[in-house]
Fold these 3 entries.
Entry 1:
Amino acid sequence: MVAKIILVLLMLFMVFNLMRALMAMLRNDPTKPPMTRFLGRRVGASALAILIIILLLASGVLEPNPRPY
C-alpha cells in the first residue's frame, strides 16, 4: 500500500515538473532556472518509478495481470 502511494506521489511530481517546464519555456527569463532542469527532474522521477515497479514485481508485492486480454 505504501509503495502505491509513493508511485502516485512520483506521478504527481512528474506532472508538476512538466507544468513548471512549460512555464519556464513560455517565460524565457534568463534569471530563472532553465526548462531543462525541470525536464531532467521529470525524467529522473520516471526512472525511479520504473525501478520501484520492477523491484515490487520481483519481490512479489505487485502481481502482474495473468491474462492481459
Entry 2:
Amino acid sequence: MKTQDTMLLWDWSKAEGVHNLLAVKHPAAQRHPQRYSAGACDSWWHTHPKGPSLAVIFGGLLAQGITDPRPILEQLARIEDAPGWVADMLEGMDAWNGC
C-alpha cells in the first residue's frame, strides 16, 4: 500500500503512550479490533498542507508519547513508498543494540 492509501490506527495509555500501531489500507476492507480506538489517522493526515507525510504523523505520535518506537517504525516500513529515514532509523536501532 502507498502512503496516500494508508490509514494508521493505534492505542494510547498513560503507562504505554502510543502503542499497537497498525498500518492498514484506507478505506479499510475489514473491521479492525476495537482496541485501536484511541487514535486513527486518515483524513487529517491526507489533507495536511504538506501532504500525506510519514514524518508529520510520526512527529504527532512522538508528541503523544512513544515508549517503544521500533514496532511503530516497523509498521511504517510496510508502506511501499516509505521514506528512507524509516529504514535508517530501524538500522540505527539495530546498530545501537548491537554495541
Entry 3:
Amino acid sequence: MQTSRFTTASAAVALLGCLVAFVAPLALGASPGIRGSVTLSAVVGAVFAGKNAQTIRDRGRPRFAAGVMATVLGAWLIVAPLQYEAVGPALTATTQFGGMCLAAFSAYTALVAIEGYLGDTDAPGDDTGYA
C-alpha cells in the first residue's frame, strides 16, 4: 500500500510536537514537577509517534493503537500546564502547541489506519486529488 505524503508528514509533525514539548520545560527553566511531568509525557508520546512513523515507513500505513496512544498523550500535554499553579505563559503555550501537534496529527494517522482496515479503495494514492 502506498502511503500519502500527508500521512507521512503527519507522522513527522507528531514527532516534532514531542520534541517541542520535551525541550520547552528544559529551555524555559520550569519547576521540577512540571518539567518531569511534561518531559516524560513527551518521551512516551515520542515512543508511540515514532512507532507509528516506523510502521508507516515499513508497511505503508499507520497503526491504529500507536496513533490513539499518541493522541491521548498529546491531549495530556495540552492539559498538563493547567494542572500546576506556577507555570508561565511561554511554557504553557509551547507545551500546548507541542501537544496539539501530537494529538491532531496522531489522530489523523489513527483515522487513516481505520480507513485502511475498512478497505477504503476510493482514496487516491496521493493527496493532490489526481489519479
